């Protein structure tokens, strides 16, 4: 019996990256008895891939690809439109990948095989990051954390995901991304709720995708802004799930500690830097990151949106 698997990609103003992503999907090893197709959702006031541009892409690819448009600006809006678009094809499985990523040829095979062998409904794999420009020495880059395939997980991002269509179908769990989380953490929240609903989620250690990191994303300003955004969205997420009082009891002491120690580290780093530049800079920026996290937590408690994703990195 043939099963249907739809791969969903959300994109905004990055046609070159999207093209590279789609080409990698077109080169996937097709699992036995599995029918693959792709849906693309453009999150932009005016679609780039419409009419002739969309037809040209479809001509180049051997897999069926379907373009959709979401005018409302915000990642959860685009992701929910992608889920609806995928469900139009009556899939058994839905995969998610970002437009700035490229899949290894055996990506889907590895995720699907792991779900079958471990009786899981969600599989999440690692992202190998390719930096256009090295990050500053003081930045702690996100390193791959190797875990045995089949390890049960309780949350996941959307950058490398395969999930049973039951999770999003109307006659299943019917889950959607929370559209109030327009400035981050919507994917973590979605899969936390998936886990809470009883779906088994696993890690697949050898199902790789590669992500291109443009030089603009590793500037000092963007790195600090990302820390601020993550802390803001994390606190706001807790406000939505547990209420403002419970969130305040958790985050006010935490953010206070972060800001006090962050200020102290920043001052010490500034003083030390003329005598030991590298060590001083590391301490200085460590303090700034803590200040960003502390102030971001407070910002999230009051539900103030962050504009990190208003800036698009890459092309």
Automatic annotation (TrEMBL):
UniProt-listed Pfam families: Glycos_transf_2
Every Glycosyltransferase 2-like domain range: 7-148
Keywords assigned: Membrane, Transferase, Transmembrane, Transmembrane helix
Keyword Transmembrane appears in the UniProt entry: yes
Keyword S-adenosyl-L-methionine attributed: no
InterPro entries noted in UniProt: Glyco_trans_2-like (IPR001173), Glycosyltransf_2 (IPR050834), Nucleotide-diphossugar_trans (IPR029044)
PANTHER family for the chain: GLYCOSYLTRANSFERASE (PTHR43685), GLYCOSYLTRANSFERASE TAGX-RELATED (PTHR43685:SF11)
Domain of life: Bacteria
Molecular function as annotated in GO: transferase activity
Protein name: GT2 family glycosyltransferase
Coiled coil: none
Transmembrane region(s): 259-276
Species of the source: Roseibium marinum
């Amino acid at each position: 019996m043939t099963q249907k698997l739809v791969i969903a990609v959300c994109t905004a103003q990055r046609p070159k990256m999207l093209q590279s992503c789609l080409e990698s999907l077109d080169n996937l090893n097709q699992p036995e008895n599995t029918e693959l197709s792709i849906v693309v959702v453009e999150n932009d006031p005016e679609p780039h891939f419409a009419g002739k541009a969309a037809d040209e892409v479809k001509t180049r690819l051997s897999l069926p690809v379907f373009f959709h448009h979401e005018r409302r600006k915000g990642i959860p809006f685009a992701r929910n439109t992608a889920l609806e678009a995928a469900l139009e094809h009556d899939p058994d499985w839905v995969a998610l990948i970002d437009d700035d990523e490229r899949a290894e040829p055996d990506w889907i095979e590895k995720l699907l095989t792991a779900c079958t062998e471990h009786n899981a409904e969600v599989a999440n794999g690692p992202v190998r990051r390719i930096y256009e420009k090295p990050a500053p020495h003081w930045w702690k880059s996100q390193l791959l954390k190797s875990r045995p395939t089949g390890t049960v997980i309780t949350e996941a991002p959307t950058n490398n995901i395969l999930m049973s269509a039951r999770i999003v179908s109307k006659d299943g769990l019917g889950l959607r991304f929370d559209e109030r989380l327009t400035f981050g953490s919507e994917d973590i929240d979605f899969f936390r709720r998936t886990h809470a609903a009883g779906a088994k989620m696993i890690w697949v250690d050898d199902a790789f995708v590669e992500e291109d990191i443009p030089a603009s994303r590793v500037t000092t300003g963007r790195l600090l802004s990302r820390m601020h955004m993550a802390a803001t969205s994390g606190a706001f997420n807790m406000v939505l799930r547990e209420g403002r009082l419970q969130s305040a009891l958790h985050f006010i002491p935490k953010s206070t500690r972060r800001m006090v120690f962050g200020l102290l580290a920043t001052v010490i780093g500034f003083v030390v830097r003329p005598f030991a530049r590298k060590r001083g800079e590391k301490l200085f920026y460590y303090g700034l990151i803590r200040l960003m996290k502390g102030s971001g937590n407070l910002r999230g408690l009051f539900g103030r949106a962050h504009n990190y994703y208003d800036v698009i990195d890459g092309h």
